[in-house]
Description:
The structure is a homotetramer of 433-residue chains. Chain A contains 15 helices and 13 strands. Chain A has helices spanning 5-11, 26-37, 56-62, 74-88, 103-114, 128-139, 157-166, 190-199, 250-261, 272-279, 290-307, 309-330, 357-368, 394-410, 419-431; strands spanning 45-47, 95-100, 120-125, 143-148, 172-178, 180-181, 186-187, 205-209, 228-232, 243-248, 346-350, 370-374, 383-387. Chain A starts with a helix and ends with a helix. The first copy, chain A, has 433 residues and is an alpha/beta fold. A seven-stranded mixed β-sheet of chain A has the order 2-10-9-8-5-3-4, sandwiched between helices. A four-stranded mixed β-sheet of chain A has the order 1-12-13-11, sandwiched between helices. A two-stranded antiparallel ribbon of chain A has the order 6-7. At the C-D interface, helix 1, helix 2, helix 11, helix 12 and helix 14 of C face helix 1, helix 2, helix 11, helix 12 and helix 14 of D. Chains A, B, C, D: Substrate binds at residue 385.
Amino acid sequence: MVLSPDCSKALAGFSAHRNVRVANDGLLAMRINILREFSMTGRHFLHVPGPTNIPDRVLRAMHVPSEDHRNPTFPNLTLPLFKQLKRLVRTETGQAFIFPSSGTGAWEAVMTNTLSSGDKVLASRFGQFSHLWIDLAKRHGLDVIVQEEEWGTGASPEHIQAELEKDTAHQIKAVMVVQNETATGVTSDVAAVRKAIDAAKHPALLFVDGVSSIGSIDFRMDDWKVDAIITGSQKGLMLPAGLGIAVVSQKALEAQKAARANNPLRRVYFDFEDQSKANETGYFPYTPALPLLYGLREALQIILDEEGLDNVIARHHYLAQGVREAVKAWGLTLCAKDQKWYSDTVSAILVPEGFNGADVISRAFKRYNLALGAGLSQVAGKLFRIGHLGDLNELMCLGAITGAEMAMRDIGIDVKPGSGAAAAEEYYRTNGK
Amino acid sequence: MVLSPDCSKALAGFSAHRNVRVANDGLLAMRINILREFSMTGRHFLHVPGPTNIPDRVLRAMHVPSEDHRNPTFPNLTLPLFKQLKRLVRTETGQAFIFPSSGTGAWEAVMTNTLSSGDKVLASRFGQFSHLWIDLAKRHGLDVIVQEEEWGTGASPEHIQAELEKDTAHQIKAVMVVQNETATGVTSDVAAVRKAIDAAKHPALLFVDGVSSIGSIDFRMDDWKVDAIITGSQKGLMLPAGLGIAVVSQKALEAQKAARANNPLRRVYFDFEDQSKANETGYFPYTPALPLLYGLREALQIILDEEGLDNVIARHHYLAQGVREAVKAWGLTLCAKDQKWYSDTVSAILVPEGFNGADVISRAFKRYNLALGAGLSQVAGKLFRIGHLGDLNELMCLGAITGAEMAMRDIGIDVKPGSGAAAAEEYYRTNGK
Amino acid sequence: MVLSPDCSKALAGFSAHRNVRVANDGLLAMRINILREFSMTGRHFLHVPGPTNIPDRVLRAMHVPSEDHRNPTFPNLTLPLFKQLKRLVRTETGQAFIFPSSGTGAWEAVMTNTLSSGDKVLASRFGQFSHLWIDLAKRHGLDVIVQEEEWGTGASPEHIQAELEKDTAHQIKAVMVVQNETATGVTSDVAAVRKAIDAAKHPALLFVDGVSSIGSIDFRMDDWKVDAIITGSQKGLMLPAGLGIAVVSQKALEAQKAARANNPLRRVYFDFEDQSKANETGYFPYTPALPLLYGLREALQIILDEEGLDNVIARHHYLAQGVREAVKAWGLTLCAKDQKWYSDTVSAILVPEGFNGADVISRAFKRYNLALGAGLSQVAGKLFRIGHLGDLNELMCLGAITGAEMAMRDIGIDVKPGSGAAAAEEYYRTNGK
Amino acid sequence: MVLSPDCSKALAGFSAHRNVRVANDGLLAMRINILREFSMTGRHFLHVPGPTNIPDRVLRAMHVPSEDHRNPTFPNLTLPLFKQLKRLVRTETGQAFIFPSSGTGAWEAVMTNTLSSGDKVLASRFGQFSHLWIDLAKRHGLDVIVQEEEWGTGASPEHIQAELEKDTAHQIKAVMVVQNETATGVTSDVAAVRKAIDAAKHPALLFVDGVSSIGSIDFRMDDWKVDAIITGSQKGLMLPAGLGIAVVSQKALEAQKAARANNPLRRVYFDFEDQSKANETGYFPYTPALPLLYGLREALQIILDEEGLDNVIARHHYLAQGVREAVKAWGLTLCAKDQKWYSDTVSAILVPEGFNGADVISRAFKRYNLALGAGLSQVAGKLFRIGHLGDLNELMCLGAITGAEMAMRDIGIDVKPGSGAAAAEEYYRTNGK
């Protein structure tokens, strides 16, 4: 149809889109200012590697009136949560803790409860999040033996075994492994790390950061004899941030008792014993983040009882593979050095020389309502990241792929239009049911 | 990473995705059954030409506790709504009515209030919705002169003028035009129809069905001297269905008074006078659909005061054009016969001989969580429709395009993978801001 | 503690409460203006006899994204609804219809589908809502024999039987009874009306308005051989307004077929046949009010499958009785003339000579955030009404009682403070579990 | 009306209310079991002293899709929050911190950032929450001088002054005061404590626990030269738990720098410097509890910009006074020993000898859907508490009062029915606007 002059004007280059009227009141003015600068219509495409998209059902489940967290019906909600969390990490013997915190809080909880000041721990560093965990350990007074691995690779079972074998006095109390390094899109092989520890016949605890893997990438606490696995609510669990979750083994709980008696790291908020005592009957030592607990119940039902954990993990692999096919079709490469490191929750994509990944991200956000992840620290500017975890499907991933194509072309990166989409489409078509 | 045997099995062909556990309780069982048959993870891509996607803000605005619709603060909500609806259809002199009904109810309201039993009306038929409106008029005892136009075209100003010129006795009381025929993706030129009526010097009222155009395609009630425009809440207004909206001219209100005295069509629920009397002070003759009124306030603020009506219309044109570029790249054609009929809210895409549009739709829905519109009546099976109206952006349209590409290829239609996406991407990239 | 001078000033007579700052932006200004004039903190106490309080669960259930109402999973939602509605009115043989309308629309649907122009119907009038139904029938061209009963009483089986016995030609096609007259707080005995019709050996259809009784007061469609029962969503069903519900007998459906052939009343929107045809497979002839259908599913689950219908009805009686004890303790009387007319969903309370019920209502709303129902028509000013239906409990009723006590005292009605509360408390304490 | 036999049976003593059908599926079964044991219809009356009732607007504001907390529009949300929090505690010079934690976390943050291991602090103990804070300080290795005050009184400025005057070496680094002791319903006079410190010419920092006072009871950070005030989201701020808030003075920030250099208490999660650095530009060092930030914006707008902080404080006093009038009318006494200790956010009501406060609470919860607060530690069983803070009004308080009357009478406490309600009503009627 023929557009009226006013509408044609509005369409001219579509830049007039943002030329909205000036408002003099607070919130409206803010909305209009944002609308002027950013694309704000339609659904936001959230493709950072967390926080992830929250299913509508989970949002609804959290829209609850307040209640007394000491009321007699409360354990009906909470006691099953602890059980479900154990199913999520595949443990029968571990104990789950839920803190009103982020994943960082769960890290701090595990470190401060199970170790003593000056204890030696062994940790691999190969990205921003493994770095931050090491930093946290150091700042709490632990003596961290850092194994530097090339960014784009992960924890090396060989290096770990070698270091442990050197430690004949068994001074190393714990091995820290990030299962999925969100910064580089690298998944470490935790089962192999366990084998390395066993091969070294070393009694060290095995601590795993599963923030961006739990509920998305296979994890088997009991099979792999993991002593502490931590995660946050805002990744594979498809919730807002606000819950720090730790599941710890009986061996770790023994260590906790020992640590308590001997030059302990101080903590109250994150204290396991306070929690344990209250959790036993379904309560908490202080007010929990209530709506998130309702959301957690809904999310765990979806993952464990409706879609099924194996199916969820398979879906993550399938969706990730489609994204990787797109990257290949673009002629670009991943930060992950080898297929064995490829992460099923996030792909870190290197931009060609002469371009800045931050420009892709900025363009995608402002112009196409698409949130991509940035390169951090060592890899700042060198890459952009597509998160593909949580409540996702094929078309959402294709939205991210087509958006990235447009944003890359807009800043001059020479990828063929539609090439990534075509590759992903063909993968999805021929690999799904 | 290497998948475990269980997860690999789940991934095998991804068909195991649906092989979820059997549940023996009601709602959970239903969810799992649906999950088994349909893709249910991630966001649903809703691309029928209504109901349309509801912005989160609008959903929130409707999440309100109950209240007495006769309380003294109620007019603070309602009185501005009538004014905003007039801005939406660009009238200063018309009067807006809001019924708890669908758009069909608004049709019935306009017909039964303004016409008398046996009155002659002139209507063009060129699709399922123009057909249904004619059917409604006939069933109410009106004498409808039907002008058949080829499906894929719209109302013909020439034919209308000719018919009116024949009617020297001015027995034709109203001309009925569907501005946007949702079934074929055709937009009629209402301004030209007005000119045709004027050229024929005929006093007939001009009634327009704007169900799938208002708030998306340009409409100018006063400029075009339209006597009744009707719409529903679930299209350009980005709300759930449940509000039937009619804005009528003073001339139509005069006709209503005359009709009342003379062999009237019966109605109480849809009576304009009952509404008028109560609306004057901000109330309704019976309980209104309260949450939708709060939603309407939010939606109208977005359209009129934040994005701006001209911008909204321009955006619809821009997004539609991207979809049309994709269709061209696929080597397919639209049901609309000519560019001048192209609808900016829905594209009806003809499938090649030997294929059934319904198969594309079924595949898209079950496999890719994408809802496309079906061919109806004369064009059943011959096409599928992509709705592109309401709260949309580029990546949502690209989701529909890539999903349609996959679904078409899955049933054997030979379109080049990524071709539609590439064409739309390049259009969006180079025509936006 | 000692208040600061500023806070003391704010407290002075608490009138400064409303003296909030002037805002110059739209919505905020409106909120502040309302806050200045009305009490707005805390929960609103909604005690009109509909719309009623919506349970949080039901609000959540309606907070759903949009979807295509023609998609293949849709009947999973809708087909069980028709069955549940039949359970709600205790029929095995009737057929349920759900319209996007108010209860008035359901009235119109029943009248226009089953009767022909000029048909005789018999109706009792004893309040505003029985009056409005008669008015609707007349405006549709029916010949209504009106039996005037004293306001404060209900339908008289004796009078009905007498009138029917006079009608030896069986010209009366239907008897219309309002089960619960919301304006006067009177419940008619529908079972007795059935007996009267049977005693008169008259074949007339029996139509019942159950707007403010269904889901709250016992109703037995099959036992009482009712031919049409209508209700709306915003009363006992604890939903927002927007659904008009009619359940009709096979006899009424036969009448509908006959009426269609013979001088029919016109309707399309409310046509039973269009609905029937589409409903059969779980769809609707036009877009339904989707979120309300999700809400209806939740509400019916609560009523039928969790609390249980008998329990719900018993609870309404119990809560109503507490309110009536309070009225007695105040020394006031109900509009209902006799215990047998007492409604379990609303009490209409006569104010003493010299006072205006509207002043009680206005005071309660503005000062105590309590919505009471007004006297209408004949009883305007003579009473105020406490609605006690839907999602209620003892303390909500006590909120209404204490609020009414304060409002009455504020305008000078001499009730003893706490007297109504004491009487209701003692009733609840000693009659509950 | 006459009830049917089934409904009469259901009504019999109303005990059958709970005799609902057996369900064999998970969530439904749980709901029915709860329904069988507890009153579940209607609105829950939440009258513990936190978590408090969340306004519907605030719940809506938190119902938001996920987003990247590092996106460029994010500071539009966060930067104003820090400013508004400063207005809330009436400081121009302090700095606000927001942690994803409970109030306990904010306690820990203040202690661990500003003090060094072995530092001396002075604290008054007169209830469970002052006790817990002291416990937290001790467990972090601080040397706490505990001043025991009688439960029912608060911090003694005289005792504090005396202790500080003894400390001529100025070894005491901080004075810790709980402004409102939630366990006993006692408000301490923080201004007087400040005067005592000044009178002693002591440089100690002044730390205040405002968990159950901020946003409800007057607090003036700058006027009273408070060095750290902490609160949680789930009390006067009318939000769910999940945010720990601390506002600290420049003097405290200086102390923080000093402490860092000298035998520091370890923390990372709660580190002020990490926060400061990120907060400056509107971001956080780790993922914040996003929905709560949107809720906080809405709550602060209500408190500061709509109702107004002085009005909010005055309303709390007014509502509290009504509850106290009820207690007096019952012939009971408060745990608070004297009017000067009365808390405007919670009343702890002593039950007569021979009764157990826990029985009142249990009865109120199970039978009347009313949550009251329990006696803790020293006063366990001796009292029950009515919380009256947050989003409350007169009728909500009257709901708590009438519910408490019934529950007390049910367990045999001889209070006159309606007596408390009458007293509160008369207070509200004559002291409001």
